[in-house]
Design a protein that fits this description.
six-stranded antiparallel β-sheet; alpha+beta; 28 helices; about 20% strand; single chain
């Protein structure tokens, strides 16, 4: 039996606790469960053979509540290949409180999600028991100098070991080259001395190569095998065979083989460490945008404080040329702010009291003060950094294949090496132990599980980092992979294709004795409490004409249809023709006027007073400048483009003509948008949905890929898999192209990693490659994978 303690959110009374208890008790394997409403915790005793922690959490969520998980990150040292990552994952998943584990070998980072009941020290201990070292990454140290120092320390260590082994191996390399070229008369006699060769090779074998012995021992002690096992076996075979022929019996020696192999492999690890550091440049650039201090107003005085000390509600002063430290709302002063780091707009944006400002943007001209609204991890930049880090640390589905192969790779290579030795020693050249040993060594050292392990994560890291620099946030590797498969894309009209800032254009009265001004007064009064963009545009249009809203009674909003309320004792209805029809109001005589307005791309609404049609109100929303270009490119890429809107078909088709979209889904109620997404998915299409509003969130979540406009609501952004920070439709084109380029890059990496091993191992087994050539090939295979991934930074989009 095991015990789980789970933090629950969303409970409002004891009845909630009882409902959760009842739901969880029904699960098989639950022996006892108690939900404490006061401390918001569930404690359950369960049999892990019958039920998992995930099942319990899903039961809680199925009851309508949520679970608070502890998410922690750790820097891991000692990993050499994908097999190491798999071993750490297995060790941590044995802990009862751990829900999910993700090890990123390219970042040397571990991310753990767990319920309460387990400490960070327990997680670190589990990693150490698996044979590796782990250190907690705090919010402050994430992406900071601490991580940079760790990378630099690793690079410096490999550089030192390479120089040490290169100096001692140089005479052996000269000896080997001179003998191959038959330059015996140029070789100093001392180099022919076996004891001198052993003296040079021994420090290389056991000092520079100690890391391989250590890692191999740890891996084998914990029931696994990795690249270090192959290196240690191959070089040890050559070294100890040579030592035997030096001290015990007369025979050929291969000290140069072991020493040069270790030198080349360390060089490969050095170049790999340098290259891997470059893959996380995007995070470092984003971190570099943050201000280091803030000027907070305290007791009437301006005081410079570290960023970490700024609290919500503080009044912060900003002078010309300074970075805005956190997100907030201007309370006094005016200025122009450069927001290009977030929006991509090169022109500064004018700011006045009441306007929002975003941390890390630059104040250009005026001085102002603002009230801090979001600080620390809640700022826009911090959330962007977190999304990019999460994406870089996530696994794409395509990586599962590499993980499966890596699990069997090293044991298979060892088996092939043993067979190679046996075939050469017993069959091909009976009794020739030197040839059999060298060929087996070549098999061991040419195999490279690191290339397989790095093939996917390095490309994901570079791809998501490049995307962030372009204002595109992929929330995970799976979304980056899925995006390249999209065949149909649905674009919401308002706020996505159009600017989402409609304006009042026409006021037409059809009721005798009712002026257009009076009609507009009635309409803005009933629309004042509606949150719909069209309603707000009408109210703003009336205000511009000097009209003020009046008090109303019995306001009712009818989603997707309109509003109704009482103004001056009269029942006023404003909305669609469907609403008019439902209320029994005749409008047919004025359809021609409506059609003219809709043909011009305007949205026309009917207004009825006391059961009779009183007039028409028209509003127009202008198309974004980038819409036509972006949609044309999407269609040229072979995508099926659809537009979805709650507007009537005539208006929708007018907007569709402006941007070149023929597939129109008009008069779709907010709750039905997700149904339209499901319909296209049922036709076997991979569907992307692009939207920016609250009513788009269900459709974004339903789509295979939900793309949220960063200029939209937080709910839409949360529901989306991809966020376009700048709200530019061309970002969709870039996102799809980058996804395609990244997936092509991953497939190239996987192909070469597999091809390299599939071809290299048999050639080595056949005796056609010397161990030195095999070792150098292995050393540079990982570097080539990382270098190929880095090409994504320069790919044309």
């Amino acid at each position: 039996m095991k015990q789980a303690v789970i933090k629950i959110t969303g409970m409002t009374c004891a009845a909630c606790a009882a409902r959760i208890e009842k739901k969880v008790k029904k699960l098989p394997g639950i022996m006892d469960v108690n939900v404490n409403f006061a401390i918001e915790k569930l404690t359950a005793e369960y049999s892990p053979d019958s039920i998992s922690l995930t099942d319990i959490i899903e039961a809680v969520r199925g009851a309508g509540y949520d679970v608070k998980l502890n998410r922690s990150e750790y820097a891991v040292t000692g990993m050499t290949c994908a097999a190491c990552a798999n071993r750490i994952e297995r060790a941590l998943k044995k802990l009862p409180a751990v829900l999910s584990v993700n090890v990123n070998i390219a970042l040397s980072k571990l991310t753990v999600e767990a319920v309460e009941g387990i400490s960070e020290q327990e997680i670190i201990q589990a990693v150490e028991n698996a044979g590796y070292q782990a250190e907690t990454i705090t919010t402050q140290s994430r992406g900071s100098d601490k991580e940079q120092e760790a990378r630099e320390k690793e690079t410096a260590s490999q550089q030192r070991l390479f120089l040490f082994s290169a100096v001692l191996s140089a005479p052996l390399i000269f000896l080997m080259a001179a003998e191959m070229l038959m330059w015996d008369h140029y070789i100093p006699r001392i180099l022919f001395n076996k004891y001198f060769q052993m003296a040079l090779a021994t420090p290389v074998q056991f000092y520079a190569g100690f890391q391989f012995y250590r890692d191999a021992y740890i891996a084998l002690r914990h029931g696994g095998a990795n690249m270090s096992v192959l290196v240690a076996m191959g070089t040890s075979a050559a070294y100890f065979f040579s030592m035997y022929h030096t001290i015990v019996a007369e025979g050929p020696v291969y000290f140069e083989t072991s020493a040069i192999l270790i030198t080349l492999i360390i060089l490969g690890k050095l170049l790999e460490a340098i290259s891997k550091g470059r893959t996380s440049e995007a995070i470092r650039k984003l971190m570099g945008l943050q201000a280091k201090t803030a000027r907070v107003v305290k007791n009437g005085q301006e005081v410079d404080v570290p960023m970490e000390e700024v609290a919500v509600g503080d009044i912060v002063s900003v002078r010309p040329g300074e970075k805005i430290p956190v997100d907030g709302i201007i309370t006094e002063g005016n200025s122009a702010v450069d927001e290009s780091m977030l929006t991509g707009e090169s022109l500064p944006v004018d700011k006045k009291p009441g306007d929002k400002v975003i941390g890390a943007t630059i104040n250009k001209f005026g001085a102002f003060r603002f009230q801090a609204a979001k600080v620390g991890k809640d700022t826009a930049l911090a959330q962007i950094i977190q999304i990019v880090e999460d994406a870089q640390g996530s696994k794409a589905p395509i990586q599962r294949m590499a993980d499966v192969i890596s699990g069997f790779f090293v044991p298979a290579v060892i088996g092939i090496a043993v067979i190679t030795f046996a075939v050469w020693y017993f069959i091909l050249l009976p009794g020739h132990v030197e040839t059999a040993l060298l060929n087996a060594t070549a098999v061991l050292v040419i195999a490279c599980p690191c290339a397989l392990g790095l093939a996917t994560p390095t490309s994901i890291m570079v791809g998501t980092g490049r995307a962030a620099e372009l204002g595109i946030l992929f929330k995970g590797g799976e979304h980056l992979e899925k995006t390249h498969q999209v065949k149909a894309i649905i674009l919401d009209k308002t706020g996505t294709i159009t600017k989402g800032m409609p304006e009042l254009t026409d006021v037409i009265s059809v009721m005798p004795g009712l002026s257009e001004e009076e009609l507009l007064l009635f309409v803005i009064s009933v629309e004042q409490f509606s949150e719909h963009p069209l309603a707000q545009a009408i109210v703003q249009g009336g205000n511009k004409q000097g009209l003020s809203t009046e008090a109303i009674d019995n306001f009712v909003s009818i989603p997707g249809a309109g509003v109704t309320a009482e103004v001056r004792g009269k029942r006023v209805i404003a909305g669609t023709r469907r609403l008019m029809k439902e209320r029994g109001i005749s409008y047919e005589a004025n359809l021609s006027q409506v059609e003219e307005l809709e043909a011009a791309g305007k949205t026309a609404m009917f207004v009825a007073i006391d059961g009779k049609l009183a007039g028409l109100i028209a509003v127009a929303d202008t198309v974004k400048e980038s819409a036509l270009e972006a949609i044309s490119e999407l269609q040229a890429m072979g995508l099926e483009v659809w537009m979805i809107t709650g507007d009537n078909r005539r208006t929708a088709e007018a907007i569709g003509r402006q941007v070149g979209i023929k597939n129109i889904l008009a008069e779709v109620l907010p709750e039905n948008k997700a149904e339209q997404v499901k319909r296209l998915k049922s036709e076997g299409k991979i569907v992307a949905m692009v939207g920016d509003g609250i009513n788009d969130a269900p459709a974004l979540a339903t789509a295979d890929v939900g793309i949220a406009m960063g200029t939209g609501t937080d709910v839409a952004i949360e529901a989306g898999d991809v966020t376009l920070i700048r709200g530019d439709l061309r970002g969709i084109v870039t996102a799809i192209r980058l996804s395609r380029a990244t997936m092509a890059n991953i497939k190239q990496n996987l192909f070469w990693a597999l091809f390299y091993n599939v071809v290299g191992i048999p050639i080595s087994a056949a005796g056609l490659l010397s161990p030195m050539i095999a070792g150098s090939a292995m050393a540079f295979s990982s570097v080539s994978v990382v270098a190929n991934a880095l090409r994504l930074r320069r790919v044309k989009l």
